[in-house]
Amino acid sequence: MSEWQTFCLKDLGKIVGGATPPTNNPKNYGNKIAWITPKDLSTLQGRYIKKGSRSISRLGFKSCSCVLLPKHAILFSSRAPIGYVAIAEKRLCTNQGFKSIIPNKKIYFEFLYYLLKYHKDNISNIGGGTTFKEVSGATLGLFQVKIPPTYYEQQKIARTLSVLDQKIENNHKINELLHKILELLYEQYFVRFDFLDENNKPYQTSSGKMKFSKELNRLIPNDFEVKTLGNNPLCNTIKTGVNPFKQKVYYETKHIQETLSLNQGLKVSYNKRPNRANMQPTIYSVWFAKMKDTKKHLFLNQHMQSWIKESILSTGFCGLQCQKHTFEYIASTIKYSLFETRKNNLATGATQKAINIEALDYIFILIPNKELLNNYSKITKPLYEKISNNIIETQTLTALRDFLLPLLLKQQVKPQ
Questions:
Q1: Please, which domain of life does this record's source organism belong to (predicted)?
Q2: pLDDT for 342-360, tens place per residue?
């Protein structure tokens, strides 16, 4: 391979900032132009982004110093925090929390993406500021990197890493689809009550016998019961405390991406672990984040056994120990939006609101008959198993990608 060359980032593309339209005019915001903030990247599953949680209007775009970034521009968050990286999937703009690079002909856009991923900590270290760190466009522009001299060599390196990232992204998409299917099944069984009866007909639609539940303020099937999440025959609340260990990986709620993937946790020993590292994951356990408006879940079936053995969780999670045949039902109940709404309504606290264990006695859940529970488990078990397998595979692929990235950029490994 040819000798790698040193460039300042400003020599590899145009560095541009972003802006926020005045928020006192609602007409500045709408659905015309995608507008990205660092918060959007904090939950991004994959390399590419095409929209954020908000968008701006043409009026809003003209009201500030927003720059319309072209497709394949590289977004780099320059404050709070520094180092989120993404590729623009289409034309979009950002707020002032970014210094984005529009690559020139010297560099392949995906190679620049991986280059910034590799150097993000070094770039963060040169940030300045009194209240919070920030990297200016000028500072970022002077940051030096080494790159292969040809597009072809850059593409070979980028594509080696892209193969892994594409598989990771596909796993995320598959898991999103599987969760949507699970939600539809849950609604059919336990919201509309149109599970198949003994005559193979949808229960409620076919005039199945119903009764009124005061707790839920709605009709439910005659043989269903209503209990609380804190006291029911299907699951028990997991208490704090972990078994002694030499070394494990500690996961806080921030390490969990919804129900789709696991970020890297922190390696800890038993004696030197943080105080909050005090929850023991188990097989057939369901976990949710206690914090209000924090939608993080873990569904740990037997296919997560290797992960369970190596991990401990934060007390920011609440765990429910299920039985083998009730796991899928409890997981689906916790994942369903009505649970999250109820959890948020019961959250308390002066600064950061969260639900406490006692509040579980005020969350009502349906207790279906055992035959229906077994039937729901049989139908949904393969979907939960596939989700778990994808999560474990994604962790392996992510570790491999992160292992290869510095080797490729230090020229210690040559792409084939």
A1: Bacteria
A2: 999 999 998 899 999 999 9
